[in-house]
Structure formats: C-alpha cells, structure tokens
Fold:
Amino acid sequence: MNTLQVQQQTMRLCLQGADAQQALSLAQTLLQDQAAPGLRAYREAYRARLLAALRDNYTVLQRLMGDEDFDALALAFLQAQPSQQPSIRWFGEGLAEFMAGPLYAEALAHPALIDCARMDWALRAAFDGPHAPSFTAERLRELAPEQWAGLTLTLQPTVQLLPMTWAIEPGWRLLRAWEPESGEDAPDLPEPQALDHVLLIWRQGLETRWRSLDSLEASLLRAVAAGQSFAVLCDLVAAVQPEAAAQLVVQALGGWLAEGLLAEA
Structure:
C-alpha cells in the first residue's frame, strides 16, 4: 500500500466511524512505510521539536548536564514516556520522576540533578500559571479585631512549596545567569550539599521568583495552603517562640503581602 492509498483508506475509515485502533494501525503503517521519506522526515522533525521543548523547559538542568548527557536523558525519556499532551508546553512534566525511577537512576550522575529538574519545572509552571486578584493590606485594615482569629488566607495559584533534598540554589542561580552564546566559560559551581528544606516558588507580576524557607515559615505557609486560620498560625509560632507569636505571624503576613503571595478568597 503506497502513501496515497493509506491516506485515502484512513479518510474512509474516519468518515465511516472507524474505531481508534484501526486508525492507529493505519497511521503506524504509514509512518513505517520505507517509501515515505517525507513522513520519516516529519517524524524526525517532531522528535527534534520535543527535544527542543525539553531544553527550553529545563534550561538550567541542560546547562548543568551539558548537551550530550541532557540529550541522552531526553531521548530516554521520550522513548519511555511519549508526549500525550496536545500542547508541547507540557511535554516533560514527569522528567524529574523519570530521573529518579528505575529506567534512569543508574545513569544519574548526581541525585541533586533531580532537584534541579524539579526546580526548573516548578518555575516554568509558575511563569504561565493563572493569577487571582490579590489580597491587599487594605483588606486587612477593614477587619474588626474580633475577626482576626478566624481569618483564613489564600495563596496565589502559582505559589508552590517545593520540598528539596539538596542545596542547589547557589549553583542554579549561577547557571541561570550564564549566557552560553556569549562565549564565556561555564561558571564554577559549588558542590551541592545535602539539605532537607522547602523552596518557595511563585510569580509576582511578570517575574517568577523563588527563595528558600526556614522551617517555621514553611510550616506557616503549609498551614495557609491547608486553609488554617490566623489563630492556628499563631499557635504554630507560639510552640516555638511563645513570647512573640502574634507579632511574628503579623510580620510574616506583611512579607507575604509585599511579595504578592496572597489572593482574595
């Protein structure tokens, strides 16, 4: 069956209400047809486009691994998890999990690479995530004193609390600022240290932002994400610093407002 015949037969099956398996079988026949170099070229171009999308979504990871190792990872991922999304933007969502899984773990040069992949993806998700109307200081000033205890806060949709096991942020910052096309050598990177901590990621205006959290603020933001009240936040701080619990929560709240972390409920 030549290319034109396969195309015509596919069209007939579609018009006749053929099931998905029949259409898929015909598509596979067409793609495997050695007399169809144009389609083979299309298949290669499609794969190249997916690899380019991974490089774009994982800019810092690609710079850290280098072209050869990153492309090997990307091809292994593409083979194991073909794109299922209609938008190429979301290809690569499970890359970090793939790196930690049995199909790739032995090839992993350093476990900190997984955290790098997770940070890259979280920032990209924050960049084009939705934005809700901001909760402002003016709204707080409208509250009566008796309303504060029951106040619940809402995080912006782009806010993520990302658990990390390695302190990769110093090296990540250097690689993100590096411009390979400038001809400058790659920066010397500090050796990542094992460190369990939480990374706060969000978008403020048109800029993605991140910072590492201490354990207390991470607990407070998790409580906010879980819908806990201002009184519960005060109790969390009081368990650590009972003499200034309310004051410390108010200070944290002021910082969250300034950073645009909070949304109207």
In short: The chain has twelve helices and five strands. The chain has a mean pLDDT of 87. Residues 37-57 form the longest helix (21 residues).
